[in-house]
Amino acid sequence: MTISRNLSILADGVSASGVLDVASGGTGVTVSSGASSVMLRDTNQNVAINRLNQANTNTAAAGGVTTLTAASAYSQTLTGTGAQTYRMPDATTLSTGVAFIFNNNATGTLTLQDSASGAIGTITAGGAVELICVSTATVAGTWDYHGFLPENVTWGTNALAMGSTVVTGGTWQGGTIASAYGGTGLTTFTAANNALYSTSASALVAGTLPAAAGGTGQSSYAVGDVLYASTTTALSKLADVATGNALISGGVGVAPSYGKIGLTTHVSGTLPVGNGGTGVATLTSNGVLYGNGTSAAGITAAGTTGQVLIATTSGAPSWGSVPTTAAVTSITFGTTGLTPATATTGAVTVAGTLAVANGGTGVTTSTGSGSNVLSTSPTLVSPALGTPTALVGTNITGTASGLSIGGNAATATLAANTSSISSATGGAYTWTAANFFQSNSNTGTTTGGTPLQAYSTSSLGAIMSFHRAGVYAVNMGLDSDNVFRIGGWSAPANLLQMTMGGALTMASSVTATSFSGAGTGLTGTASSLSIGGNAATATTAANGGVTSIVAGTNVTISGATGAVTINATAGTATAVTLPSTNPFVQNATTLSANLTISTNNAMAAGPITINTGVTLTVSTGSRVVIV
User: Fold this and answer.
1) In the beta sheet, which residues pair with residue 87?
2) In Å, what is the CA distance from 561 to each residue of 529, 542, 543, 615?
3) Is there a contact between 239 and 245 (Cβ–Cβ < 8 Å)?
4) Mean pLDDT for each 10-residue chunk of the chain (627 residues)?
5) d(CA 229, CA 460)
6) Torsions phi, psi of 570, nearest 5?
7) What CA–CA distance (Å, rounded) separates 479 from 460?
8) Which of 559, 496, 503, 499 has its CA nearest to residue 526?
9) Which residue from 41, 1, 3 is spatially nearest to 20, judged by alpha carbons?
10) CA gap 482, 500 in Å, rounded
11) 20 to 30 A from 335, CA-CA: which of 185, 242, 253, 389?
């Protein structure tokens, strides 16, 4: 063992003297003082130093994650453009009180996370934060977050200079900020919709903005209100009034009001012709206005008694006297029937009678042959009509003991008949003796000119009746559905019906000695029906259910309520012979109603479907064969 540097040993393990220097593994001092000396804690475990220089790490922002460890520098500075995330060390590797300071000198946001990627906080550009680990019980740990003031904020003796710092979030809990410091000096407002305005160089109030501050001083209005200056510093409201009134000035310094326009007090100037006026301001006494195009109206001089207003071609009218005589240079009356009674020039006297063609009557009296009837509803007393060569008797009404109309092959005469013949509808008339209506036409060609018609002027039918007084009556006619019918009154309705398509329906049976034609389509019920033209006679004896028997090549029997039997007459074949062109008997493929086969046998071509709930019963002794 070599011992030097102020240390002497008298014997190993016995005693030593001197101070072991730092180079030999000692402290070089016995007290903590002086430069380059070891720092020793005092009795309170405190140390005193002039300065502690801690390391700093610069990181360029790249949008990534920087993970710190227990050996990372205390000071972390983010630089460059963009954002970056810092993740704290595993807290279990640290001791409580370990701190890191983060300085964001980049343009983006610096995000702080714990070791488990939990959010701690963010630092905007230009900000700085210190994190202190206060718990190391978990990997994430617990971190205390403290932000620093922005770079441009400074403190004075009793003032905080914010510079250009923008304050966001938070709640102001201080006192009222006076207007001298940029505030309002107010803590409440008296009501909604208050406006702020100054009442002095240093005071603000809240309320309705007065006219002096650029407002109206009014907080409510009625519909139609008009604002006007009531003083040099105030506005007032003028209430609306009834329709037709106008806003009228009260004069300088006087409030306006509503009223009617006074033409003598409120209107000045002359209303021109283009605006409905005359264009003149004064009128000649007793003169007459006359038009002058778009220029002001002209006015005549006053006329004198007896004068008339006389027009002048392309000139203004004027007053003048009417000539007492006027010379006629020429006159003619054409075909009017009028003639000059004196000369045709000078003063002419007219004579003659004005013809009907010129608006006259052609007569001077209302009596005698050839006279006009000068009344709209005249009564002719025993007129002598003479014997006309032609007479149109339309709408001739009245009563006559006899009326003879010539020009026809027969003479129609009403002898001792007191009822008139009238063309008016709705009358009740009785004709006796023989009466003829000559038509000389056929039913297929006549289109409305027949002399005798059952005529309807409404949407109802056109009918006539045959009536045996007190015994029986029946109607006949064309109904509103265009079906010709016989029936009704004493008879049942619809005894005979014939459509305009030719279909004829009878209410009862038709009896005839013979039918011609094929007989196709004969329908109805019969106890016996014989159809000729076939080899066998089809007979239904006591079957009331046959609804259709069609003769000819095919015979159809339908609607029978029981069995249909075809009996061959004596001397013919006992079997039904089918034609060689169609040797098939057709049957249905579905049984849809209950059926019982009794006494006889039956057969059908299958398959046959029996509907649900339907029963086929085959009685004892009968057989059913389905092929």
Assistant:
1) 67, 113
2) 17, 11, 7, 18
3) no
4) 48 60 74 70 82 91 96 96 96 95 96 96 93 96 90 76 73 75 77 82 83 84 91 90 89 90 81 86 86 86 87 86 66 75 67 79 67 61 61 54 45 43 56 72 70 84 91 93 93 93 87 62 48 41 43 46 49 56 83 88 89 90 86
5) 82
6) -60, 140
7) 7
8) 559
9) 3
10) 7
11) 389
Task: Please check whether residue 248 is in contact with residue 261, taking contact to mean a CB–CB distance below 8 angstroms.
Answer: yes
Work out the burial of residue 287: count CB atoms within 10 Å of its CB; fewer than 13 is exposed, 13-18 middle, 19 or more buried.
middle
Output 80-84 pairs: Cβ under 8 A, ≥24 positions apart: 80/106, 80/107, 81/106, 81/107, 81/108, 82/106, 82/107, 82/108, 83/108, 83/109, 83/110, 83/111, 84/59, 84/108, 84/110, 84/111
Q: Find the Cα–Cα–Cα–Cα dihedral 14, 17, 21, 26, rounded to 10°.
A: 40
- Its pTM stands at 0.33
In one-letter notation, the amino acid at residue 413 is T
Query: Are 453 and 464 contacting, i.e. CB atoms less than 8 angstroms apart?
Result: no
SS3 state at 185 = coil
Q: What is the pLDDT of residue 136?
A: 95
Do residues 479 and 458 touch, judged by C-beta distance below 8 A?
A: no
d(CA 462, CA 450): 15
Q: What's the fold here for domain 56-147?
A: Jelly Rolls (2.60.120)
Q: What is the distance between the alpha carbons of residues 251 and 307, in angstroms, rounded to a whole number?
A: 51
String of b and e for 149-170 (b: at least 16 CB within 10 Å)? ebeeeeeeeeeeeeeeeeeeee
Cβ atoms of residues 268 and 248 within 8 Å: no
Residues 552 and 532: their CA atoms lie apart, in Å, by 9
Phi, psi of 274 (to 5 degrees): -65, -20
Query: Residue 414 and residue 403: Cα distance in Å, rounded?
Result: 6
Provide the residue ranges of all domains of the chain, joining segments of one domain with +: 1-42, 56-147
H, E, C per residue of 338-384: EEECCCCCECCCEEECCCHHHCCCCCCCCCCCCCCCCCCCCCCCCCC
The answer to whether the Cα torsion of 428, 434, 435, 437 is positive or negative is positive
Q: Are 38 and 58 in contact (CB under 8 A)?
A: no
Are the beta carbons of 224 and 239 closer than 8 angstroms?
Answer: yes
Helix (H, G, I), strand (E, B) or coil at 181: helix
Distance CA 559, CA 565 (A): 14
**Beta strand spans in 80-218 (E):** 84-87, 99-104, 110-113, 119-123, 128-135, 142-147, 154-155, 160-161, 195-198, 204-207
Q: Which amino acid is at 502?
A: G
- Token pair belonging to 70: 């227990």
For residue 143, what pLDDT is reported? 96
CA 221-225-226 angle, to 5 degrees, is 120
| 146, two tokens | 């403290």
20: tokens are 């072991």
Q: Which two tokens stand for residue 251?
A: 């004069």
> Residue 528's pLDDT is what?
44
CA–CA distance, 22 with 37 (Å, rounded to integer) = 9
State the number of CA atoms in the 13 A half-sphere of 485 facing the CB: 19
**Is the CB of residue 551 less than 8 Å from the CB of residue 575?**
no
Q: What is the CA radius of gyration of the chain?
A: 68
Signed CA dihedral, 386, 390, 392, 396: sign only: positive
Q: How much is the pLDDT for 140? A: 96
| Pairwise CA distance, residues 479 & 583, whole Å | 49
Q: Is 352 left (phi over 0), alpha (psi -120 to 50) or beta?
A: left
